[in-house]
Amino acid sequence: MIGGGPAGLFFASLMKQADPAHEIVVHERNRLDDTFGFGVVFSDATEEALAAADPAVTAAMAAHSHRWDDIAIHYRGTTIPSTGHGFSGLSRRTLLAILADRCRGLGVDLRFQCEVTDPATLRGADLVLAADGVNSLVRERYREHFAPAVDTRPNRFVWLGTARPFPAFTFYFKRDPHGLWRVHAYQYEPERSTFIVEATEATWRAAGMDRASEAETIAFCERLFADELQGHGLIGNRSLWRSFPTIRNARWSHGNVVLVGDAAHTAHFSVGSGTKLAMEDAVALAAALRQHGDVPAALAAYEEARRPAVESLQRAAQVSLQWFEDTERYMDLEPLQFAFTLLTRSLRITHGNLKTRDPAFVAKVDAWFADHAFRQAGTPAPATPPPPPMFTPFRLRDLVLTNRVAVSPMCQYTAEDGMPNDWHLVHLGSRAMGGAGLLFTEMTDVSAEGRISPFCTGLYRPEHAAAWKRIVDFVHANTAAQIAVQLGHAGRKASTQRMWEGDNQPLPAGNWPLVAPSPIPYFPHSQVPKEMTRADMDRVVADHARATELAIAAGFDMLEIHMAHGYLLASFISAITNRRTDEYGGSLVNRMRFPLEVFDAVRAVWPAERPMSVRISAVDWYPGGNEPADAVEVARLLHAHGCDIVDVSAGQTVPDQRPVYGRLFQTPFADRIRHEVGIATMAVGNISSYADVNTILAAGRADLCLLARAHLWNPYWTRHAAWELGYPLRWPDQYETLNNYRPRFV
Ligand SMILES: Cc1cc2nc3c(=O)[nH]c(=O)nc-3n(C[C@H](O)[C@H](O)[C@H](O)COP(=O)(O)OP(=O)(O)OC[C@H]3O[C@@H](n4cnc5c(N)ncnc54)[C@H](O)[C@@H]3O)c2cc1C
Ligand SMILES: Cc1cc2nc3c(=O)[nH]c(=O)nc-3n(C[C@H](O)[C@H](O)[C@H](O)COP(=O)(O)O)c2cc1C
User: Fold this and answer.
1) Residue 22 banded pLDDT, cuts 50, 70, 90
2) Whose CA is nearest to atom 2 of ligand 1?
3) Separation between Cα atoms, residue 739 and residue 362, nearest integer Å
């Protein structure tokens, strides 16, 4: 084994316990007490998991830990406390001493001050454990096999210690003339706390920290945090400013060599310690080796079992570290909301989790949120207690939604020549009865040629308005929901098959000609669209204006223009699909020119008291395509043209996109646009629980949450959520009996 950190030592002890006949040699270049870092953090849940592997080690750890339940957030002159978090701090040095003792007691051969310079010399062993940390020599030696990727983050941080005891896990957000400084501080033993200082690169440079020695760094931080340190000094221990490297490896093993801990993967310190991951790796690898006799099978099983959990934690760590990179964005929030967004920053801790941990804190957040919401909507607040965030109203111009859940647009591929029918009535009607505050129609096309498929709905003939009116009237007459139409033109993605017959695939017969900003087919085998002339553009603008007139006739409450997913207007916005050399191509301002012309034409027709939204793809997930920063500029332009709310989706611009999916994967884009542009946003994408909806809203990441598949799966999703949250919605009179009925599902 190379490396006597937490991963190496814990693994050695577990293997020796599994079979005392194992011969295990740990090579560690440092002395045992020669370690960097101060305290490591474990959650109660992690400790329980580790205890199952070796109760003796965790008992010793617990005996030396400092436990706390509280988090204290110091922000703009106030302190916001929150409780119920259950963490412990432990000195890294003590942890290593406990692990080394355990190893010695079991007969592991520990060789300190023994540096391995060429891992190949150890390959005669049955197994070579590369537990050699973040700068792993082994990983570098076999890099073509492990294929590591190192993402060096822009913020700078320094790991310091102090004798000041902190009763809670403590965050400071402090401005000085150079910028904003963040501190993560926690106690790990009597009179010892970790004190990590973090700043953006600009702030760090402005303060001259790029040229500071360790002593100068300490002196600077002691001056800056004199009040917070309450007379205590800061302690260094190779305390140099660093940039956090997020490390990933395509493969974790190579023959009999396996990477564990920081050598294999890192996760930002703001989501708990890398030490936890390192020790969990040790447990998983030892278990795999116990289960499988031969090493290659065990290493494959280890990676298969462990990788999903590690990658999920890395995704949580990624959003968490970005929150700390972007903290300046949130510095105008009111203290309670700032605390809520900080506590839920990883998108894994929800409103529901916090309610369990600290009901009083969440009650305060809910009351604050509801107060704002009812004032914004101009409607009277109900008697106490306040509704959870998702059941507060929201106003857009004269439209007041009764709650913050919307059914996202979903193509049904069931219309004939654009006519919505009974399927659409039942599809939308049942979801309106199901309690959503707002429904979106599927992408409804402004012309026959703009349809994705021959089965898409449209608003290009007067009969379409009448058919839509039947649905709109049903929704208005029977439910509290409002209904928006999503207008679109499929551009180069038109004339294709139904999703379930061949998504985006050209029709086998009966195709119609396509238009697009540039003559680039979607798939190599797709039709080549015609590059639009000015006359084509005029026609498309007029089609949108006519569709808007028809939408008014149908009685829709809100109108959304589809500028996402690679359809016509989206393909103007993305440089991958727009290669024009006229004033409609080139810069983002040019690429937005035609979409904005369409927007203005619609806005001019659509009644001033009714709101408009625009769906955008916040990122193309493709090199050379739009990035989230471009989406901010897109939203800024839309805002300037009178768009009320941006519907923030992503991708689908090109078939070979490389999206990063996961829970709430598009929500950070909505959050960024909302704060950087100051426009309302809708979040969409893998939102499936009411806890997530409440979290997104209370944290101010979006104003509305759109659910597609979740509300498709359960048309009564919103009612069900309301009932679970103890805030049941009144049933329609026909179902009055249900007001006194208690459902049982199991
Ligand atoms: C400066 C710094 C401070 C940190 N402080 C903390 C903290 O306070 N709390 C916390 O939770 N996390 C801290 N971390 C992160 C944490 O240390 C790691 O996530 C965790 O220790 C990973 O465990 P590991 O066993 O994989 O690697 P490590 O703990 O890094 O252990 C790797 C070991 O391998 C040894 N080694 C490397 N190469 C060789 C070689 N060629 N031959 C022999 N030995 C070798 C190293 O000396 C080291 O002891 C800190 C990280 C850094 C960089
Ligand atoms: C069957 C289906 C049809 C869809 N049709 C549309 C559409 O017409 N317009 C649109 O903007 N998005 C459409 N989408 C995308 C959804 O609106 C939504 O953005 C996406 O499904 C992610 O949300 P979810 O994770 O809640 O499903 C569709 C999605 C599904 C599953």
Assistant:
1) very high
2) 37
3) 27
- The two tokens of residue 146 are 């492990």
Tokens of 627: 């990035």
Amino acid type, 85: H
Cα of 5 vs centre of ligand 1, distance in Å, is 6
| C-alpha angle 79-180-360 in degrees, rounded to nearest 5 | 25
Q: Tokens 């103007």 belong to which residue?
A: 572
What is the per-residue pLDDT across 155-214, written as a single tens digit (0 to 9) for each? 999 999 999 999 999 999 999 999 999 999 999 988 899 999 999 999 999 999 999 999
DSSP 736: G
By C-alpha distance, which of 697, 29, 719, 733 is closest to 372?
Answer: 697
| 567 catalytic per annotation | yes
Q: Is the pLDDT of residue 37 over 80?
A: no
Ligand 2 proximity of 707 Cβ (cutoff 6 Å)? yes
Ligand 2 binding pocket includes 415 (Cβ within 6 Å): no
Inter-residue contact 559 to 610 (CB < 8 Å): yes
- pLDDT band at 32; cut points 50, 70, 90: confident
Q: What is the mean pLDDT of the chain?
A: 95
In angstroms, how far is CA 2 from the centroid of its own chain?
A: 35
Among candidate residues 567, 584, 690, 716, the one labeled active-site is 567
Q: Which two tokens stand for residue 409?
A: 């647009």
pLDDT above 90 coverage of the chain, percent: 91
Which two structure tokens, joined as six digits, stand for 251? 């493969």
Q: What is the per-residue DSSP string for 76-102?
A: TTEEEEE----EEEEEHHHHHHHHHHH
Ligand nearest to the CA of 240: 1
With cut-offs at 50, 70 and 90, classify the pLDDT of residue 744: confident
Ligand nearest to the CA of 414: 2
pLDDT on residue 46: 85
- CB 224 less than 6 A from any atom of ligand 2: no
Residue nearest to atom 23 of ligand 2 (CA): 685
Give the ligand 1 atom nearest the CA of 262. Answer: 26
pTM of this prediction?
0.92
Distance between CA atoms of residues 711 and 189, nearest Å: 49
Tokens of 722: 């309301």
Q: Give the ligand at the shortest distance from the Cα of 118.
A: 1
Q: Is 410 in the pocket of ligand 2 (CB under 6 A)?
A: yes
> With a 6 A CB cut-off, is 38 part of the ligand 1 pocket?
yes
pLDDT at 360: 96
